[in-house]
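Posting this for the archive.
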Amino acid sequence: MDEQRWNNLCATRTAYEDSTEESGTGPLEMFVEVSAQCNLRCRMCAINFDRRYRPAAGRPTLFTPELFTKLTPMLRTALRCYLFGLGEPLLNPNLVDYVSACSSAGSEVWFNTNATLIDQTIANRLALAGTDAITVSIDGATAETYESIRRGANFERAVAGVRALIEANERFGRPSVDVSFVAMASNFKELPGMIDLCAELGVGSLHVEPLYSQREEHLEAHYARENLGVLGPDAVDRTLDAAILRSRATGVRLTSRFVAEHVDPDYVQHSLSEQPWWRCSEPWTAVWITSAGEVRCCCLNDTSFGSLLEQPFEAIWNGDLFRDFRRAQQHGQGPSSCANCRVNGRVRCSPYLRAVEPMIYRPLLGPDIPPKPDDDAPQLEWPPPDGVVGDPLPVVGHSRARAHGHDLQVMIDHTVVTDLGRHGVVDGSRFAVSIPVPYLTEGAHMLWLRPRGALEHHGWCHRHVHFWRPDANRSLAVGLAIVPIPRTRILPLRSPTIEIDRARQPVRVLRERRGLDVHGAALVDLREASPGPKVLTARMGGKILEARRVLVR
């Protein structure tokens, strides 16, 4: 992520947390309705009934190149561009050009498709243009079920489209491809078969989406007939268990709110007992641009903040209408169209702002998390709560009576990222470790400690950290860096000399002896280092331990 986008993300996060009416200089995410028409008539899709998509409404069916040029200001801040709406994006003949423009501007490009219009030529062009991720909607493992739901579709054509995308990925390294399955009473029994279908096609991930209740007579009736609550929790759990077994056997990742949450599968019923304690982040982080050029904050919200055909985007983003809308959201006074997300339990908090549960977008840190720490629990000294971190991730702390440093694991979100006893340096009660995290996504994460192997333990020291990767060739250094000192049998272990662009830095060394060997960690205090691109060099005994390019912040 370049520095302009990162600075805008930080300003947006501050605006959201402080509930201010202005939010950065532009959105973190943008949704572009490249097509307002579809080649299918799926039973659960609002495009078949929404008055805004009827011919009499006068909505343009396609997002035009002329209108697309007006997105340029947003592309300077957008981290991710979703090129789809309720329609099928492949119906727009300019889609590949739009992908290329967004990708060239530095944004990730994602979209959903039914894949029935994709052949190998199109798949290759999408890959070469810079498409990062494509989700294909397939709601049945058999042609009969799939074609009964996605009316007008051909199962074999959709499968061929997936194969073409997988082949493009194998040849060009992108896009990543996953499949989305809308779970309904009439198709849920085919979920284990969907896992097998994905494995056969080479798709690595299957996402199971709940059927959502929508504010329209036909769709409400469809929800009443088809939501998984009709099957009952026991039947749903049996099918989920079978699908999880197939997932483990095939290696296809299964993601779903149904897996993450063991709650009433009728999400409308469930939402009655769970009120979100967080605010929707979309008014601060996102825009939805319709094919008519209207600027909204999401696909369901009816509020238009202006038209790109009449105003420049800069006048809209922090204009009076958007500011009024954010002010209303602060006080829980959003428009009636916001109720649809609350009814379906899908009030979204952006993962760029806070660590969230995948698929659910509920913040991981809330009123009851973290629990009140014990007086004798381990303590983290670095990184601080809400600190900015990079790769490698420096972690420093001290243990107390409840857990020795050798027995601690460092966690990010729900994942163990290192074992201090194996990879860290434990010097008495103090510990330090430098953790390579090449897999970590940019944005907010929850860092915490837990006892080794204690899967049900609530852990300690929970905090948000904000991960930034400035570029592929330079690591981020904020406040503290750790230089590992290799194992040696030469005693005593000396302190290395650490320089930032030849300026010597304060160093504190932790040492740990294991058998005949001793190793250590040099903690480099960067708080007084001048910011900017630098070279960090570590020397010990006339040899260079480490030399790396860093961005000091």
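The chain has a mean pLDDT of 92. The first helix runs from residue 3 to 18.
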